[in-house]
Amino acid sequence: MSAPTSEAGTGTAAAPVNGAGRVPPKIRVHHPVSRGRRLFFFVSSALSLAVINSWLFADLLLRLDWSGWHTILLGLFFVLSFAVSFGGLHAVYGFFVLRRGDRGRVTALNEWHGLDISSVGTAIVVPIYNEDVVRVYEGIRVMWESLQRTDQLAHFDFFILSDSTDPGKWVQEETRWLEMARDLGGLGRIHYRRRTVNREKKSGNIRDFCNAWGSRFRYMIVLDADSVMTGETLVSLVRLMEANPTVGLIQTVPGLINGESLFGRWQQFSSRLFGPIFTSGLNYWVQDGGNYWGHNAIIRVDPFMHNCDLPTLPGKKPFGGHILSHDFVEAALLRKEDWEVWLAWDLDGSWEEGPQSLTDFAARDRRWCQGNLQHAMLLFAKGFRGISRVHLVLGILGYLASPLWLAFMLIFAWIKFHKKNLTDLSDIPVAPATPFLKNLSITEHGFLVFGISMGIIFAPKLIALADLALSPGRRADFGGWWRAAGSVVLETIFSALQAPVMMLFHTQFVLTNLLGREVGWSPQNRAADGTSWRDACRAHGWHAAAGVAFGGFAWIWLRDSFWWFVPVLAGLVFSIPLSVWSSRRSLGALARKMGVFLAPEEIMPPPEVRQLAGRLSLPENARDTLRPVDDPLTRVVVDPYANAIHVSLLREKQLNPVYARELEEVGVGSAEMHQLRATLLAGGPVALATPEKLRIMSDAESMAWLHSRVWTLPQDELAAWWHQALRGYRS
Questions:
Q1: CA distances from 510 to 304, 360, 516, 518 (A)
Q2: Contact, 702 vs 673, CB < 8 A?
Q3: What DSSP designation does 261 have?
Q4: What is the DSSP string of 394-422?
Q5: Is the dihedral of CA 267, 270, 273, 276 positive or negative?
Q6: Using an 8 Å Cβ cutoff, are 570 and 501 in contact?
Q7: What residues does 251 pair with on adjacent strands?
Q8: Over the stretch 685-720, which tens digit does the pLDDT of each residue have?
Q9: Peptide bond into 619 cis (omega under 30)
Q10: How far apart are CA 426 and CA 276, in angstroms?
Q11: Is 341 helix (H, G, I), strand (E, B) or coil?
């Protein structure tokens, strides 16, 4: 069997970086002064809200016998107020941006519709790591066929970039790749490459692709394993880049789809209802200094290759070593060299799938937490733009806010426990320092501060509903305004219950990172099978225990303040059932039946979303396409079809120096490799550990030799394992 085209160096050459097409004139769509002014206004607004609320809180503390602990409490209150105000103001600014119509839309900035992209080569890259192979490949199939409908498919190539360490996933990825490429007529256009050495995780995977293939393409569109984009959106991204040659990266805003559990549907509804006002508000101040979220974005390959090779951070892990959250840093490196980074908040047709349970959501946040905390070492990196430092600070603050919130509550309780009467709900006749508060009792004063804080937190939800009411075309997307309003009420309750659980999770993640514990690299659990009670108890047992213990303490020693803690205590005490029930598909289906948490992609699903759901429900996609022999390594040794694909891809890898070096690192052709294949032939796969299986599976000559020996040796010279495997294959 001839080697199928997949690896660098043997496929059909795409258009070079500087294709023969006309280079559009340089157009600057964002003026730096405008961005600076907008950022100043935005930050000033958040600071003003934080200062006003903190002033009122300070006045309350002054009425209650100021102490050193009060100073710390006020400092924490100010930081938390600023963080909440900064986040909430995105909805306020976004509301007015949306009301302005096309004047605030990225896609209306320059004329780009209909631009000729026939001379432009674009790579669509899909990095994967032990993912659901069926889901990944069906998503690629959907995008391929969607591009076909645009008549622009000829200008795109797909690359599946595997870092999988599961032998079974590896074999399934290879066989399904060839089957899909044949079905779609995509041989030479749909490529598959698995790295032998998983160096630097996803960022290293993209870097290795650029080293091997990057010079052949002007753009690459980076996707995640669960990403789906319409052909129109993919083409639009290329045309936007062609019309704006100063832009190095355009990030889309992917919506969530395929939420089946109650948790998944809740997240999906929130992202679709609140997303537009928040992202339009974000774009108001970022302008050409946007950020990169790691997927569903188009990147200009040449500047990315020249400027975005990530540094290795000094020191030990988890803060030293390779950078986990590479996307923020890559955006900063592009801005450092004057390349613009856009947020295409108004470009539809970009989706991803979210976690289906609270525990999976927290596991993903744990990885992001370590990556964002690493950014503290880059805050003062030479040459970074101020806007990039703002993005890094916000990412760090997003995780530090939780331990700060916890510290605020504990100090509050400490002061009350020591009879400081911080928020004694009695009417003590002490005059406030601020004159207009003189008619308020301490109780009323406390409720004023609390009310303003809650107003800042909940205002974005009301603004989103107001925007929906003023947008007749969008109301039907959520089942009507009243259904959307009811869903917002339930979403608010869920958010209030989840918030204290995530506060403890984030605090745990921050502390473990500070203590030097590194986060492992594991694939996201994208299924919606539900969290078991056992797993929920393991994940949330200490949350519930902390809630009960603190609640008991507050009831005994802080009786007059107990009810102020109830919203936090409820989420902790009921964290186990909340985690289990919210992960259930059955409750998600019931919510959909009742019209709760409806999203546009459910009511009027786009063709791509509908096609993906249909493909995943096919009977052949419910099972592995390989024959049911006992073990992945057994399959690839015994099955002539699987062996031919596997060996062909390995031999093709040897033709490219970039990948050939990987094979040398695992000892291909060494005496030790000869010993491994002798052990495998004599004892079967059970005689090898997983790393040893991966090593021998990386050696083309060993795999070809093993296949030949298993089929040609006399039966009395074969181990019992291979007798059974051959019988299973023939049956």
A1: 31, 18, 10, 11
A2: yes
A3: S
A4: HHHHHHHHHHHHHHHHHHHHHHHHTT--T
A5: negative
A6: no
A7: 297, 343
A8: 989 999 999 999 999 999 999 999 999 988 788 888
A9: no
A10: 44
A11: strand
Query: Tokens 């085209």 correspond to what residue?
Result: 5
Which of 264 and 725 is assigned the larger pLDDT?
Answer: 264
Residue among 99, 101, 107, 104 at smallest CA distance from 468: 99
Look up the CATH superfamily of 115-354. Spore Coat Polysaccharide Biosynthesis Protein SpsA; Chain A (3.90.550.10)
Task: Please list, residue by residue across 672-693, b when 16 or more beta carbons sit within 10 angstroms of its beta carbon and e when fewer do.
Answer: ebeebbeebbeebbeebeeebb
Q: Are strands 297-300 and 247-252 parallel, antiparallel or unpaired?
A: antiparallel
Q: Is 159 helix (H, G, I), strand (E, B) or coil?
A: strand
Helix orientation angle between 481-514 and 442-469, rounded to the nearest 10 degrees: 120
CA-wise closest residue to 138 among 680, 693, 728, 611: 611
Q: Identify the CA nearest to 217 among candidates 24, 8, 27.
A: 8
pLDDT mean over 35-61? 93
Would you say residue 569 has pLDDT above 70?
A: yes
User: What token pair was written down for 399?
Assistant: 């995780």
Q: Which of 600, 649, 656, 617 is nearest to 175 (CA)?
A: 649
DSSP H helices, 515-631, are 533-557, 562-573, 575-582, 585-593, 600-603, 607-616
| Other residues' Cβ atoms within 10 Å of the Cβ of residue 645 | 23
Alpha helices for 617-718 (secondary structure H): 632-638, 640-654, 657-665, 671-683, 690-697, 700-712
- pLDDT at residue 111, rounded to an integer: 82
In the chain, which residues fall in CATH 3.90.550.10?
115-354
Token representation of residue 313: 């951070």
Q: How far apart, in whole angstroms, are the C-alpha atoms of residue 659 and residue 653?
A: 6
Percent of the chain, pLDDT > 90? 70
The residue ranking higher by pLDDT, 458 or 723, is: 458
Q: What is the largest CA-CA distance in the chain?
A: 101
Q: What angle do CA 286, 287, 291 make, to 5 degrees?
A: 50
Q: Amino acid identity of 535?
A: D
Poorest-pLDDT segment among 30-34, 208-212, 606-610: 30-34
DSSP for 198-256? -TTHHHHHHHHHHHHHGGG-SEEEE--TT-EE-HHHHHHHHHHHHH-TTEEEEEE-PEE
Label residue 66 by pLDDT band (50, 70, 90): confident
Residue predicted with more confidence, 463 or 28 = 463
- In DSSP terms, which residues pair with 344 in a beta bridge? 252
Burial environment of residue 720 by CB neighbours within 10 A (0 to 12, 13 to 18, 19 or more): exposed
Burial label for 208, CB within 10 Å (0-12, 13-18, 19+), is: buried
